[in-house]
Specification:
Largest sheet of chain A: 5 strands, mixed, barrel
Number of helices of chain A: 1
CATH architecture of the largest domain in chain A: Beta Barrel
Strand content of chain B: 15-25%
Number of helices of chain B: 14
Low-confidence stretches of chain B: none
Helix content of chain A: under 10%
CATH class of the largest domain in chain A: Mainly Beta
Low-confidence stretches of chain A: none
CATH class of one domain in chain B: Alpha Beta
Oligomer: heterodimer
CATH architecture of one domain in chain B: 3-Layer(aba) Sandwich
Strand order of the largest sheet of chain B: 3-2-4-7-1-8-11-10-9
Structural class of chain A: mainly beta
Radius of gyration of chain A: 19 Å
Largest interface: A-B, 39 and 47 residues
CATH topology of the largest domain in chain A: OB fold (Dihydrolipoamide Acetyltransferase, E2P)
Number of strands of chain A: 8
Radius of gyration of chain B: 19 Å
Order of helices and strands of chain B: EHEHEHEHHHHHEEEHEHEHHHHEE
Mean pLDDT of chain B: 97
Distance between the termini of chain B: 19 Å
Structural class of chain B: alpha/beta
Strand order of the largest sheet of chain A: 4-5-6-8-7
Helix content of chain B: 25-40%
Shape of chain A: globular
Shape of chain B: globular
Order of helices and strands of chain A: HEEEEEEEE
Chain lengths: 144, 390
């Protein structure tokens, strides 16, 4: 709690951890474990979705197909996060980038393998799938 | 639609307010707004509350209900509005619409937020989730400074904006905040102070960021008929409101050098008010981070795209410049109780337009008697632009 010279009463604590459904994006999360990053593509209008969407708000179709993304990306912007949230305290400061893939969709993810001073808007990076040491499937940008 | 005027305003002292609950804090704003309007709490027919942290960073889940009871507003129509950091403006729009539509003759827009009852890392956690939790926070731990830092680096790369330019925004807003008795940070700072402060999310440093704030603001609105009946001396009229939104995922935005929601909301507001940006005497813009003020200059048409840094370098947004911006210290120095900010901007516009009670050193010169408030929610997830005219 914040230090305060004022008299206070501590509220009853509450711990919450919602269980987030992934039925409709399961192929994406399974794909990450196999080293693949998938997007979805609308069979009607051809629009490509990343993050993968199970539904197409453009033409209202609900049956989209899975397509594997290339790994070639260009950095549009980035930041190095020094002051971190509670659930990221165990990590060292990390760099986040938004990269544009050659297919046109953009991806926001951690960027690793560079010194901060080397990172520039416009540089080429590679998008890779990975599983964290804690066992969570994720994806990140690395040197090409 | 009926004409609607602001007839009463109140604003609590901003800061770390561990001396009061959310209800007691709201009362500090409601009381002066009712006295200013010359009405009682029972005269208010509809109340819209802007507040974001209910049940998260402060304990009450239904703050509209508890603050209304405490302030004697029970039995009015009641709703809580959520538009992240633009919740106060969403509440103002809701109260405005209740009157413009003919549903009510007197309505209140209330902003009340308590952000300092929990520790800072937990605040960073909650606010970092205010984007698309599942896709941009869960695996990547974005924080709010980090979202705006993404815009800062892109703007710097494209237009040559520098960290010194960003610092100038903080220096200006602290200068005017120091003259504002309700402000949280009243210390004057220099460019060197900003550049030497600790990095939060590069390139943004501590003094590029607004503080986390407890605070409340209350606005009483009335129909034209009610303004006449109450013989209000200086009604300040709502000339136009514009609104828009942006994608939840930043990765779905077309670029990172401006907020599309701000562009669209401001264009709609100018059209509704029947004016151009050059007719605005002064503005309150959403400077949650220094880069946000530079983006706002460009997005709402105070200068051309890419020229925001030039505007601050030339001192055009100070008193004596082309258009004074954030003469109350802005979010940066006055503080940013996120659900309250939109109402606090209206409080400042109203006092400036009335030319009354504003500390004389920061009173803006008025030619057209038009002021504008630009309030962004999230990282351009929501935007409301409100234009008032005396």
């Amino acid at each position: 709690m914040p230090s305060t010279s004022m008299p206070v009463i501590k509220s009853r604590p509450i711990t919450i951890a919602p269980e987030i459904p992934i039925s409709k994006t399961l192929k994406f999360w399974e794909g990450l474990k196999q080293g693949k990053v998938y997007a979805t593509k609308c069979k009607g209008c051809g629009k490509l979705y990343f993050p993968p969407s199970a539904d197409c708000p453009e033409c209202l179709l609900t049956e989209l197909e899975w397509v594997e993304l290339s790994n070639e990306a260009e950095v549009e912007t980035f930041t190095h996060v020094v002051i971190r949230p509670t659930t990221f305290q165990q990590y060292k400061p990390y760099t986040v980038a938004i990269g544009k893939l050659k297919e046109g969709v953009k991806v926001l993810a951690w960027l690793t393998g560079f010194k901060l001073s080397e990172i520039k808007v416009g540089m080429k990076v590679k998008l890779v799938a990975k599983v964290t040491p804690e066992g969570n499937p994720t994806y990140e940008f690395v040197p090409p | 639609m009926r004409k609607v005027a602001v007839i009463g305003v109140g604003n609590s002292k901003f800061g770390v307010r561990n001396d009061v609950t959310i209800s007691e804090l709201a009362f500090e704003a409601v009381k002066p707004s009712l006295e200013d309007a010359g009405i009682g709490a029972k005269d208010v027919e509809f109340v819209a509350l802007g507040s974001v942290g209910a049940g998260a960073w402060y304990e009450e889940l239904l703050p509209a209900v508890v603050t209304s009871e405490y302030c004697g507003l029970t039995r009015a129509g009641l709703v809580r509005c959520e538009a992240a950091c633009a919740s106060g403006s969403a509440a103002f729009f809701t109260a405005y619409a209740a009157i413009a539509s003919g549903h009510a003759d007197i309505a209140m827009a209330l902003g009340a937020e308590k952000m300092r009852e929990i520790d800072t890392p937990t605040s960073m956690e909650w606010i970092g989730r205010a984007g698309y939790y599942f896709w941009e926070f869960h695996n990547f731990g974005l924080t709010f400074p980090a979202y705006y830092a993404l815009y800062a680096n892109a703007h710097m790369a494209k237009y040559g904006t520098t960290e010194e330019d960003l610092a100038l925004v903080a220096v200006k807003n602290h200068k005017y905040g120091a003259m504002n008795p309700i402000a949280q940070l009243k210390n004057r700072i220099t460019v060197d102070d900003v550049l030497a402060s600790m990095v939060i999310a590069s390139p943004l440093k501590l003094y590029d960021c607004c503080p986390m704030t407890d605070g409340a603001a209350s606005i009483v609105l009335a129909s034209e008929e009610k303004v006449k009946e109450l013989k209000v001396d200086t009604p300040v009229w709502v000339a136009g409101i514009g609104y828009s939104s942006g994608t939840a995922n930043l990765s779905k935005r077309p670029d990172f050098v401006g907020l599309e929601a701000s562009v669209l909301a401001s264009q709609r507001a100018y059209k509704a008010a029947g004016i151009t940006p050059s007719q605005v005497d002064f503005a309150e813009v959403h400077d949650c981070f220094t880069i946000a003020e530079i983006l706002a200059y460009e997005d709402i048409g105070l200068c051309a795209k890419g020229e925001g840094a030039k505007l601050i370098r030339e001192g055009q947004t100070e008193i004596g410049g082309r258009i004074p911006v954030n003469m109350d210290g802005g979010l940066k120095s006055k503080g940013h109780p996120i659900g309250t900010t939109g109402c606090s901007m209206i409080y400042e516009l109203t006092r400036q337009l009335r030319e009354e009670a504003v500390e004389k050193t920061r009173q803006v010169p008025l030619k057209n008697y038009v002021g504008l408030a630009h309030n962004v929610g999230g990282t351009g997830h929501y935007c409301y632009v409100t234009i008032l005219k005396r």
